[in-house]
Protein: MBL fold metallo-hydrolase
Organism: Candidatus Ornithospirochaeta stercoripullorum
Amino acid sequence: MKVADNIFLVGSGDAGLSISDSSDCSVYLIDDGNSCCLIDAGSGVNPDLIIRNIENDGIDPSRVNRIFLTHGHGDHAGGAAYLSSKLNADVYGAAETACFVSSGDQKALDVECAIEAGLYPEGYSVKAVRVHELKDGESIKLGDDMLHVIYSPGHSAGHCCYLYKNNLFSGDVLSADGKIALQAIWDCDLQSYIKTILKLQKLRIEGFYPGHGAFSVARGYRHFDAAAERIKRLWLPKNSIGE
């Protein structure tokens, strides 16, 4: 599903448009004219649905040569091993994501507690796959443009966002209407979260492409403004978890 110039939505679970497995995050594809990359990889449950969506958009899946993870939680990184192998694509992520996903550390990736909470079935795991480490502030060439890496801790350790031509792929930092995703897990940190929100607000982005739910092709900054306004009042931003 084409959502903007060069940008396609190729995966989305039941917290979004339900075009792939119900447990998937939103998976985006950027076509730079030469090759393609994915932002996140879904849960790994029925990953061929993502490949089917790529084909349905008229894109040869063999053109996908890179997968950029926003973080290591199962709904975002669980499909990385399969898609990397199937598409012959390299996988990238922030330091902690690279460490935890490369080693398949289910505890560090919060998979064990997510299974206990009923978010994933027994036996679910994030399969280990080599993840190349990205540095904060690093820029990767995509055709004639650049993909900028922005470390954005708070929701999880090793979370990063990606900025492409004033379009922000925000992972689970923020969803529509300024909602954060604050969870009772070891690596979710409120103070880091607040700093991340205020940092990203300054970007004044247009395209806003979160890991779940509605996206915006213009005026994406308003979602960060909504969260920042509550922070200014010493309130917490609204939380999408537990709704």
In short: The chain has one domain: 2-232. The longest helix spans residues 190-201.
